[in-house]
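Feature request, filed as a ticket because there's no other form

It would be nice if the structure record came with a short human-readable summary line next to the tokens. Right now we just get the raw output. Example of a typical job, pasted below so the devs can see what we mean:
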Amino acid sequence: MIDFVPFPKISRLNRECVASEKIDGTNGCIHFVTADGVMLVGSRTRWITPENDNFGFARWAYDNAEELRKLGPGTHFGEWWGSGIQRGYGLQKGEKRFSLFNLHKWADPAVRPACCSVVPELARGRDIRAVTEAALSILRLKGSIAAPGFTKPEGVVVFHTAGSHLFKVTLEKDEEPKTIGRAAE
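Raw output as currently delivered:
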């Protein structure tokens, strides 16, 4: 007998969407099995250590481990960005930042670790196209919200809450695949 695979539930399109600034850095994650347990540090695709690092993210995380414990158990993703990483955002002399992705959980600075920021929320609403365009317009008009004064932000990430899915739109070359020879994302 073959196992039955049910058709997945279809999310309604016109539900809350939240657009945040897509920061051009490198993905980082902090993982705690328990709040007082061992911390693991990762990039987008692998676990990293200070000896096998990703732009100094693991070293920074271990140096800030006590403060990062405020994140609690689970895996916490964000963007490691700044001097020497991708666009750099005008940060100088090795200055780097870690911005958490979960806006709902970490927007309040009193709740999140002091060593972390959160990606800036740009727009919110039920029409995914209107939310996306509003967020892109903010970046075109003001430049980066994460790094005020930086005029070449990358784009936006839109989270569709009902579908629990992320979409990205870049300000430049959005219609092109990221790498030649690779299927469009």
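Something like this underneath would help us a lot:
The chain has a mean pLDDT of 94.
The domain at 17-170 is CATH 3.30.470 (D-amino Acid Aminotransferase; Chain A, domain 1).
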